[in-house]
Please model this.
Amino acid sequence: MFYVDKRLQFPVRVETPDPLFARALQQAIGGVEGEIRVAMQYFFQACGARGNPKFRDLLMNTAAEELGHIEMLATAVAMNLEGAPLSLQEEAAGNPVAGAVLGGINLKNLLSAGLSAMPVDSDGVPFDMSHIYASGNAAADMSANVTAESTGRILATRLYNLTNDPGMKEMLAYLIARDTMHQNQWLAALEELGGHDAAFPIPNSFPQSEENQDFSYAFLGFQRDGSEPVQGRWSEGASIDGNGTFTSRPMEPMGEEPNLGRARKGSGAQAEQE
Model:
């Protein structure tokens, strides 16, 4: 069950409406790095969470927070579109706002939403939920969440540098701070789940004795000339999960050249294939 409060999570103010910036803000709503993505990701992770109930609570509370971020950004989009022309017949050359609408912002915000935000990215492409990761594995989900918050924070900092409006900078500074916290809370959750020493490899419930351990910690090089692979922390020393030792070597083909034989009659293949 959810409750709603009429007040925004954080103040949203716009001193100088900028329709072009409204389009940029749409990426933070419906882009793959945006708030719809993380809100739905944490929500579905929470709905499928098993084990210690505190992780479900952690996820659901953060999902609720992200819904509030969508509301803030949608409000900011609408406020930045304030003053944009309702008539496409206006002379763009004589009206800077009209010029921005006709030459920059997504016309869907005008034509389909009446100068309001939409669940789309900055190009007007609807968010289709294909970037929602809810695996049912707590450690895998927390790892995915760190990435989601990292890309979200990158986007927010780019938006921050894109505007000179004090109100927009204030709102984005808040969102950037929350991304900082969320990155850290997911890492903290991973630590509670055992950290690198116990949570990895994911899933840790699969016995490593059943995997082909000749390749568990080997970095493989696929250079055509068979030269040594690039070296780094990943190619020598103890593995990060502490369960093995990194090695590296050129990879040689171990399988045969595939030959599927003749096509079955009636399968729709050419006669020469049968």
